[in-house]
Amino acid sequence: MLRFLLLLSLALPAAAQTSDEVRAVVVLARHGVRAPIENETRSSAFNALPWPAWPVSPGTLTPHGVDALKRMGEFYRQRYSALLAGGCGSVSVDSTNTSRTIASAKATLSAVAPGCAIDVRTTLQQDPPTLDRARLADAIGGRMANQPAWFEHAFAAPLAEMHGVLTACNAGDKACAANKPDFRTTMLEAATAPTMSQPGAAHSNARLVPRDSRKESAVALGADFAENFLLQYVEGLPIAQVGWGRVPRPTLDRLMEMNTRYHDFILRTPYYAQLGGGPLAQLILKDLGDTTPRFYFLSAHDAQLTWLGGLLRIDWLVSDETFNATPPGSALVFELHHNRQTNADTVQAFFVAQTLDQIRNLTPLTGGERPSISPIYIPNCSGPAPTYACTLKDFAAVVADATKPQ
Questions:
Q1: What is the pLDDT of residues 326-354, one digit of tens each?
Q2: Antiparallel, parallel or unpaired: β 120-124 and 372-375
Q3: Does residue 183 contact residue 120 with C-beta atoms inside 8 Å?
Q4: Whose CB has fewer CB within 10 Å in the chain, the N or C terminal residue?
Q5: Which fold is adopted by the domain 146-267?
Q6: Which one of 3.40.220.10, 3.20.130.10, 3.40.50.1240, 3.40.50.620 gives the CATH number of domain 21-130+269-402?
Q7: What band does 205 get if pLDDT is binned at 50, 70 and 90?
Q8: Domain ranges of the chain
Q9: What angle do CA 234, 237, 238 make, to 5 degrees?
Q10: Do 318 and 325 form a contact (C-beta atoms < 8 A)?
């Protein structure tokens, strides 16, 4: 009898699964690997050796980034083969109006729906249009006791390590400019002053001045430099070139924790998260409620993923990085499941990301290796593990509550 009950219990999940079908999927994805931007180089004011050369202009998706995104597209195509059986009309794509997100959408969808000429609409907002920057500065400052210097002190160890990476000179290296300024105590002051929440104004006519942590946190620079090293790693640069040979993988992981913690802290500020994540949550809910089975792809930036995480109070963990990391090509995925026996609709959310080595090595993801998938618990909505499923009604209520005007 005990053996019969055990066999019955093992059979139930499979039986339940046969009555369950995915009716809609919304993928909110970060763009793929791109060349560093000015924020991540700071006009070479603080680095003793030149930054590596890239095959494309700053901020542009690289050919390697295209290939890595195609690997993710192949994974989506395999996972959602039944949903995509409807042909080209079963796919919809929206993007922010930047070249790297548009190119990322095209790269991913070329593998999701090969042969389809899919229109990439540029309807997603990149920055909240109604943002009150004075209110945001107060909201962020209030989270750090109105003491930005204390906030920097909390990151003293990784900031010191970053300064060492930037300014070290090898013996006999004629290209190395010694005695570079310390970014922890010096800043580039431009006509358009940066802020803690929006660091990195254009530095073409900037001058070096003592750092004012209320205008720009040193942690913002540390986070940006770490992102530069991450991009070098996932682009596949030789390890001897990543951080000038001074950023092996363990060091990269430590420095990127500073990056993720900084952006998580800033972007999850409730006022910022609601303005940035609110329209996304409402769009996701609308797409999940569409009566036409469809694969919706939203091509955006790491900020959009973090805003939405802050808005819905959700967290994730990938297999090889720190909490709430948003590596290139990663995504928040929302699946609408329909149970044919009970006629119930539920929402299951997860975070998906290639490991950094899978991006670096362009590892196929449809065989023995898969991306890291982190099921997400949505407060006031989710049921038990392992799927943490919400009813569609409860998910709608969570979105409505999170997006109420403050």
A1: 999 999 999 999 999 999 999 999 999 99
A2: unpaired
A3: no
A4: N
A5: Rossmann fold (3.40.50)
A6: 3.40.50.1240
A7: low
A8: 21-130+269-402, 146-267
A9: 125
A10: yes
